[in-house]
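Predicting holo structure, magnesium ion bound.
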Amino acid sequence: MLKKYNMSYNNKIGWRFDNTYSKLPGSMLTRLAPTPVKAPELVVLNHSLSKMLELDFSSTSDKNLASIFSGNLLPEGSDTIAQAYAGHQFGYFTMLGDGRAILIGEHLSKNNKRFDIQFKGSGKTPYSRNGDGRAALGPMLREYIVSEAMHSLGIPTTRSLAVVKTGENVIRETPLPGAILTRVAASHIRVGTFQYVTATEDEKNLKTLFDYTIDRHYPKIKDSKTPAIDLLKIVMEKQIKLVVDWMRVGFIHGVMNTDNMAISGETIDYGPCAFMDAYDPETVFSSIDHNGRYAYFNQPGITKWNLARFAETLLPLIDKNKDKAIKIVTEIINNFGEIYKKNWLEMMRKKLGLIEKKNNDEKLINDLLSLLHEQKADYTNTFCSLMNEDVQNDKIFNNKEFIDWHQKWKECLAKNNNSTEESLKLMRSVNPIVIPRNHKVEEVLEAANKDDLNPFHDFLKVLEKPYENQIKNNNYQSPAPPSEKKYQTFCGT
Ligand code: AMP
Ligand code: MG
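Done. Tokens:
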């Protein structure tokens, strides 16, 4: 039986729920509680995130923490719902929704910043289709690691507040320990949420969702004469910045379906994502991405494709005349390439410490990327080497063509009016020294599955400061040994 904890306990922790999404029209959500679990046990609680949210769990026992973060004990003021949404999955449109997630409410921090608090793996909902509504421990800890790493890398992302084990097994290929992740997000409004209301052909609901989104995320455009056009432009700008950040650190989302693209501009839904080691634009890790739709270098193109799907949902709000509306959004979406390229070039210039814009920068950048590809050089570590970090695997530095390139790069830097220190400082602000390398992620998850959480915590600590050289020659910087078989990630986790 689900219980709510009493108000004085609530106040002690500091929950300030102010739920707005749950008041939206009934067809956009289903009100239901998480399914209680047998024997919850806290695995990890994110203290720095709790602090940021102004939540204080210091006087809460482990037993109660486990009850709270499994949903067995709900906070006063929560209003638990599953959200309806739709989405293009690998290009095909489907009606979806939270099949294994429950939004418990929106928490306000003292400066009135609003955060969705959501359980992932909390039981079946009307949107579960054939799924069991549950999640396994490994993938939830994986989301915890990668989302927190992305946050520390300075990349907009949902975050992870806690993981509990449920004390129940989930059946995948084999029985695995079940777990629930508490996800914190600016919101869970997705491109797919707009697609859902469009598919239900209820223009009133579309306007309601549209107004809600603007109020919640982009109040600045509230009084605009063309708010729908502005929303499309802002979301495009946010998504371009996001994908450029992913390209910067070699992040491959893996499943960029429209239901996994947040209107807030945060990275969302860490499923088969992974970081690229050896530079190859065609890198794909997901076992189900057979055609490389979501490969590293396709990510900007897919972002544009998803934005076009978003634009389609906004047509009725742009102009009553559909042809006119289509013309307007087409023009906006057609600017994607130019804006992306500008942002990408700016980012790559920073990676190389090129402070002043020069005409041959683009060639210099592309020449380097071709060499990295040819030499199968480690993406992260090559930039570390350029910053004079003592890292492994810089055999590319013995390659004749690379030596020539290096010379040209040095000449470009010398032509800048800025000092080498300034260039280096710029490079250090954008080139991570530590990323959650796939083989390390697997290593710590394997230990965690055997109840040893020390490697997990050690890894998280290092990932908190990805731009700092914390431990000389630490083994978190090395790519996987070459003997290791091709890394694969799995969906439906
Ligand atoms: P994802 O690939 O995680 O973005 O999920 C796509 C859709 O499948 C969403 O509607 C999820 O809620 C749903 N889903 C994923 N895993 C499960 C599960 N184990 N049980 C029920 N629904 C699920
Ligand atoms: Mg999803």
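The first strand starts at residue 3 and ends at 4.
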